[in-house]
């Protein structure tokens, strides 16, 4: 999946509340945030595979833990229903003191040919 496909899927799970990297100031909760956290080459025993693995982090923010978790579960279900679903891993629950928001997050992994086309 490409970044654009991931954002589109997240927007289907929480319409108008899925953002790339930054949430516009004043946006009310709940919302989802996507950010790329790693990009690296795919190597095998025979060398570089002409492809890259891309890892993203999805954060779900809500006023309650239940709300943040429900929106994350909806986002994951939407991603898993896509034709080329990402690998979902490393879930975590947090509470942010500064914003007084509950946050759940997961990492997802996708793979792309070095030309940018999905594998």
Could you give the topology of this structure?
Layout lengths: L2 H11 L4 E3 L10 E14 L2 E16 L2 H16 L6 E10 L4 E13 L6
Parallel strand pairs: 1-2
Antiparallel strand pairs: 2-3, 3-5, 4-5
Helix pairs in contact: 1-2
Structural features, described:
With 119 residues, the protein is α+β, with helices and mostly antiparallel strands. It has a single domain (3-113), classed as 2-Layer Sandwich (STM4215-like). Helices cover 23% and strands 47% of the residues. It contains two helices and five strands. It has a five-stranded mixed beta sheet. α1 (3-13) crosses α2 (65-80). The longest helix is centred in the middle third of the chain and has 16 residues, at 65-80.
Number of strands: 5
How is the CATH topology named?
A: STM4215-like
Sheet with most strands: 5 strands, mixed
Overall shape: elongated
- Cα Rg: 15 Å
Core attributes:
119 residues, alpha+beta, STM4215-like, five-stranded mixed β-sheet
């Amino acid at each position: 999946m490409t970044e654009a496909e991931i954002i589109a899927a997240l927007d289907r799970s929480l319409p108008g509340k899925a953002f790339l990297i930054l949430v516009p100031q004043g946006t009310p909760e709940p919302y989802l945030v996507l950010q790329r956290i790693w990009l690296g080459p795919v190597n095998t025993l025979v060398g570089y595979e002409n492809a890259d693995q891309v890892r993203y982090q999805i954060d779900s923010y809500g006023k309650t833990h239940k709300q943040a978790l429900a929106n994350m579960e909806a986002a994951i279900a939407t991603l898993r229903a896509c034709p080329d679903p990402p690998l979902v891993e490393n879930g975590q629950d947090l509470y942010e003191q500064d914003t007084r928001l509950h946050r759940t997050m997961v990492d997802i992994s996708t793979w792309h040919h070095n030309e940018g086309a999905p594998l």
